Amino acid sequence: MHSFFETIKKCPLFADIQDSDLESLLRCLAATRHTYSRDAFVFHADDAVESVGVVLAGSVHILQEDFWGNRTILAHGGEGDLFGEAFSCAGAERLPVSVMAVEPAEILLINYRKIITTCPNSCGFHVTLIRNMLHILARKNMMLTQKLEVLSMRTTRDKLLAYLSARAVAEQSNRIVIPFSRQELADYLCVDRSALSRELGKMQREGLLRYDKSRFELMQQSMQ
Amino acid sequence: MHSFFETIKKCPLFADIQDSDLESLLRCLAATRHTYSRDAFVFHADDAVESVGVVLAGSVHILQEDFWGNRTILAHGGEGDLFGEAFSCAGAERLPVSVMAVEPAEILLINYRKIITTCPNSCGFHVTLIRNMLHILARKNMMLTQKLEVLSMRTTRDKLLAYLSARAVAEQSNRIVIPFSRQELADYLCVDRSALSRELGKMQREGLLRYDKSRFELMQQSMQ
DNA sequence: TCGCCTCCATTGCAAATGCAACATACTTAG
DNA sequence: CTAAGTATGTTGCATTTGCAATGGAGGCGA
């Protein structure tokens, strides 16, 4: 477990904030620390949206409950992770998800209004803070968009090509190394692992690509 | 075709800005108007990211080119629509997409730095503008997340249930009216229309739901 | 070296899906 | 009212996919 300030500094919301400024910034934001025992709710669905949270210690699950009461884990938040920012910034009335401590956790809660309102003593942090928030939301936006482009393909082959092509364009190379194991790649593409393997083999036999473990090479000529 | 100011006011980036303030705001932002003929590029992939754009007249396509050079239309932008905001706010170095006028178009370009930097004469618009930008990004974020939850389901049935359940929870009712025709729903879920119809019929026969046109009723007991 | 474990490829099979073609409402213009 | 056009449901068929089970390769500790 890291120290409080070390953890805080890992959170992208506080990027480019001087260490020496952190303490006064947190005071200015009226940030509060809370501890939660295992399975305790940090936020509960239908709560009013007022704050964003930063995981200081332990970890949380972002949970969603569907119409029939089935719970799904949407995401996991570990040390330094920020959560609740989209709902706050979107001006949502009520939370559509719950946040629950998976293990004993310590959370920093910050009132959203305090972040976006430049404070009376006009401290310069707010500008940085808001810029960081924009940055976080926008990056997440790009990631979501990219994943959507992949998942909007109907077949496993097309999902694979969409994913690999995007990586290749980003890396400006037809040789790419993906940060996933097979199972993880299958999870990312939302397909069955064995079906993924089968399709990969077929594509290699057809000369669309070559691969070895996590190393892939896209073939130029395959205009399909 | 609407007047310049009428169009501007439709753009969510300028929400809550007084009509009387608009003109000086635009001057402060050094916003510039440009006209493009059909098929001209407003932005080109790999351009440096410097500005966001607002469609004043005509319309644009957001295009993406994959590894093999195939172009895909990612989105359409009509009068009052904002584009390029995610890349600007995310601090992307190079644009991963192109923006092209589909028909003769007039575009308002605003340098991103001017938006997020509170100007020397500290005019109050910037605060509103930045808040609007946060709002836009966050709302888009929520929409993307929700669609991703639906598309991450592997079967048509599960996609349908995920979508309908989300609507039902949002509307707090088991009776919902969807804003889509069948074809549009199929497109949203990224499945074939006939397969969607087939699955809907099957689900109705199994008692999971009832429907008539765009009106759906989810059954409570069906815990599956 | 042996045994255990994890990751990955392969395969059989039933079910789901895309696709194309066609049938059936419902809408709208004339 | 009629005719054309559009939206939706239905169905056959080839293909794709998920699922479960199996086997092999490589890593690791005893």
Please give the structural blueprint.
The structure is a homodimer of 224-residue chains.
Chain A lengths: L3 H7 L8 H10 L3 E5 L4 E3 L7 E7 L2 E6 L5 E7 L4 E2 L1 H6 L7 E4 L3 E7 H5 L8 H27 L4 H16 L3 E3 L4 H8 L3 H13 L3 E4 L2 E4 L6
Helix pairs in contact in A: 5-6
The first copy, chain A, binds a DNA duplex (30 and 30 nucleotides) through helix 8.
Structure description:
The structure is a homodimer of 224-residue chains. Chain A is an alpha+beta fold and 224 residues long. The first copy, chain A, folds into 2 domains: 4-144, Jelly Rolls (Sandwich); 153-218, Arc Repressor Mutant, subunit A (Orthogonal Bundle), CATH 1.10.10.10. Helices cover 41% and strands 23% of the residues of chain A. The first copy, chain A, has 8 helices and 11 strands. A 4-stranded antiparallel sheet of chain A has the order 1-8-3-6. The longest helix of chain A is centred in the middle third of the chain and has 27 residues, at 125-151. The mean pLDDT of chain A is 91. Chains A and B meet through α3, α5 and α6 of A and α3, α5 and α6 of B. Chain A binds a DNA duplex (30 and 30 nucleotides) through α8.
Summary?
Chain A has eight helices and eleven strands. With 224 residues, chain A is an alpha+beta fold.
Features:
homodimer, Jelly Rolls, 41% helix, 224 residues, 4-stranded antiparallel β-sheet, elongated, Arc Repressor Mutant, subunit A, DNA-binding, alpha+beta, 2 domains
**How many structural domains are formed by the residues of chain A?**
2
Biggest sheet of chain A, open or closed, and with what strands and sense? 4 strands, antiparallel
Q: Give the overall form of chain A.
A: elongated
N- to C-terminal distance of chain A? 50 Å
Number of DSSP-assigned strands of chain A: 11
CATH topology name of the largest domain in chain A, in short, is Jelly Rolls
User: What kind of assembly state do the chains in view correspond to?
Assistant: homodimer
The value of Rg of chain A in angstroms is: 21 Å
Structural class category of chain A: alpha+beta
Number of helices of chain A: 8
Largest sheet, spatial ordering of strands of chain A: 1-8-3-6
Average the pLDDT over all residues of chain A and give the rounded result: 91
Q: Greatest contact pair? A: A-B, 56 and 55 residues
Under CATH at level 1, the class of the largest domain in chain A stands as Mainly Beta
**Reported CATH architecture of the largest domain in chain A:** Sandwich
What level of helicity do the residues of chain A show? 40-55%
Strand content of chain A: 15-25%
Low-pLDDT stretches of chain A are none
CATH homologous group name of the largest domain in chain A: Jelly Rolls
Spell out the helices and strands of chain A N to C.
HHEEEEEEHEEHHHEHHEE
